[in-house]
Amino acid sequence: MRFTSYLLALVFAFAPNAAMAIQARGNVPVVRDAEIEGLVEDYVRPLLGAAGLSRSGIEVILVNDPGFNAFVSGRRIFINTGTIAGSERPSETIGVLAHEIGHLAGGHQQRLREQLERASTIAMVATALGVGAIATGAATGQREVARAGSGIAAGTGDFARRLVARYQRGEETTADRAALTYLEKTKQSPKGLLDGFEGLMRSNMFSTSRGDAYLSSHPMPQDRLAFLQTAAKASPYYDKPEDPTLQERHDLARAKIAAYTGGAVAVQRLFAKQPFGLATRYGIAIATHLNGSPSDALTKFDALIQTQPKNPWFHEMRGEVLMRAGRAREAADAYRKAASLDKSKSGVLQAEIGQALVTGGDPKSMKEAVRLIKAGLQSDPDNPTAYRFLAMAYGRLGDVGAADLATAEGHWHVGAYRDAKVFAARAQQNLKPGTPLWRQAEDIINTKISPKT
């Protein structure tokens, strides 16, 4: 599991080639993990189809935050790891995603920007009128006019905020209705959506200390809850049970998140009712690995593999343990096994095989490492760790230009555009002009960036 930096402070760090590690990508802590990404992809795909949206161009990003929340930005759906860990059933996470897809399908973000611009215009005009009235009153000695002008200027900001908040409340309700529609079209229970909202109420995410409904960015909880309770229970699929296979995958993902963010104690607390269950054992095995006990961790993962020999993620984590123990060649074999079993064909796994080969250091394996890492990047270009290992592989092959270009690409994909330009310029010094790699470096160099970047 990989954590990439995006907007919140990073709390911990892991090895760059870990199954769950930190990468730098802007300022929000983004999680990269093939297992959890594959799970969320399976949650999202049918919902997007029900919404009439193409999967192409829509990115779902896991955010390293313990809070139960999700949001949309552009064509991206951000969902906190805390939402997954805090959802006892898959339908709760699916309900949250359905709501956010409702925002995406409705183009709510673009409309919100328009409302903000409208509110800003109203505020500027009203402020100008107020200031003008104040000046007129002062010049003519008419105190009433001056006081009226002060009232206009003071009330402008409040009016603009209420205008935007009212719009947001309407869009939240629209997204709720859309989510219910998508869930019914895909024959899924809306109970998770209802339970998730109740969880938000408990955490007071939508409350306002002033109790002013107009200043709340969402409808008051009682209003939304009343609507959801009525509409959700009217669904013919309300009492549909969870899919056992999906429930197991969901629990394994929750266990992994708990292990990486809170250790064995967090895993045991999360699955207190299932102390010897598969998810608990998985989380404990990961926590054992993170605590620096490779021998014990391998024993635990081998036992898990005996239970489910075709589970790719058990093999991937076994590879991670071997990597940490300095047994890179064996780790590469474990990653290969994981990739062969992975139905999602994750680019992360492909790159991990190559990264293990690079770490192993065998010169004869470097060309294969380059091929595998590039194959992984082909399907998953936003993997800065893979670019770093690609640069190392090229360096060991003596291809300095390609190594510098890989480094430039890595910087580019984390938003470090100035560093990307520096390495692209260095790459061109060792690349033949006019070749595809040289032109790729040229594209990086010529791309305009903002002064603050």
Automatic annotation (TrEMBL):
Q: Which GO terms describe its biological process?
A: proteolysis involved in protein catabolic process
Cofactor(s) of this protein? Zn(2+)
Taxonomic lineage of the native organism:
Bacteria, Pseudomonadati, Pseudomonadota, Alphaproteobacteria, Hyphomicrobiales
InterPro entries assigned? Mito/Outer_Membr_Metalloprot, Peptidase_M48, TPR-like_helical_dom_sf
Query: Which residues constitute the signal peptide according to the record?
Result: 1-21
Q: Where is the Peptidase M48 domain?
A: 40-230
Please list the coiled coil stretches.
Answer: none
* GO MF annotation, one: metalloendopeptidase activity
> What Pfam families does the annotation carry?
Peptidase_M48, TPR_16
The protein depicted here goes by the name Putative Zn-dependent protease, contains TPR repeats
Q: Which GO terms describe its cellular component?
A: membrane
- Key words, A-Z: Hydrolase, Metal-binding, Metalloprotease, Protease, Signal, Zinc
